[in-house]
Amino acid sequence: MSKITQIDAHKILDSRGNYTIKVMVSAGEVVADFSVPAGASVGTHEAISRDADSAVKAVKNELAPALKGYDPRDQREIDQLLLKLDGTPDKSRLGANAILGVSVACAKLASRLERMPVYQYLKTLAKIKPSRTIPYLFMNLINGGKHASSYIAFQEYMVVPVSETVDEALTIGTTIQKELRKIITESYSPFSLNIGDEGGYVIEGRSVREPLAMLQTTIASLGLKDKVRLAMDTAASSFYQDGFYEVDGKKIMPSELLELYKSLNHEFNIFSIEDPFYEEDFDGFRDLRGELVNGYVVGDDLTVTNPQRLQEAINKKSINAIIIKMNQIGTLSETFDVMKMARDNDIECIVSHRSGETNDDFIADLAYAFGVFGLKAGAPRRGERIAKYNRLWEIAKS
Ligand code: PGA
Ligand code: ZN
Question: Which residues contact 378 (CB under 8 A, 6 or more apart)?
Fold first, then answer.
């Protein structure tokens, strides 16, 4: 049996304790599922997800009857049908979460029918220029912005091990994480070990510079200076209002924020900065690119895994790396198209989780299948984050 016989969905909880959905697609006895994540710092131009109850209804009442009898290996055809059934440009009628759940569960089901590991099956669906055998791991060890309750405006402070193996990269990441725990309790109070949405520490510090300094001290004390780079996702839309950015208790102009990035880069030799300016400022991104000559300016809220937004970023030379989040666009085929478009324009892809995650590990297969530049899955702790790292490790060992 290689035709879809049943599609079902139900509500589950995500890592923040919010409702999300799990979609199951069957071909006779063979079943596959996908549990859909959700963001907190959601880009204005992302595809629209519905609340979990409405998304479950959309899957059961509209998508299931329409897709029965289709071959799950016809991914393009299925994804086109999903777009047609929804009928809106932003997937707001049925919901990007309902649509993505079905799209990815179909691919997982097809891999089972083909008796292939997911990553191997995905390779048969698209041709995308690879960058690395094993992606760089972007591990978010200090959380701020919308993922925490603190004075730190920037959302994520990441370590990126310079390593060719998952094993070594994870050892480096977890070693830094453990040492950082000690340094935080010594620097602040013994009760300061708060954890943010992506599993990173939330510190009592007051300036956006402080987490970088703390990570640098930690890395130096471990003798790992040559093995790791620092990266940030500042998620600037979240502290932008009416032409100003609110940083360290002050309202500053875009030009001052650029100067701040320049000085932080000078001091900490930063590997990448994601969403350095608010999501409409394509020119601001371009200006930073000119300054970060050996680093990456990464689009996330700017580009929202959307071909039109990516095209604008290409035209304006705004970025040299892009975050890939499947639920920003809503189907697997459209995700492939954006990844291909990025690579054809020499832009690096960083496959990413969301801050509200599930235990699904599909993105590790997606990252490995196409030899992407980076995988971003939070701190190497908590089930929903380590599911991705452990899956990548398992694939790399196989
Ligand atoms: P989000 O954050 O999932 O809350 O959008 C992740 C990110 O900005 O990269
Ligand atoms: Zn981001």
Answer: 139, 140, 198, 199, 200, 353, 357, 384, 385
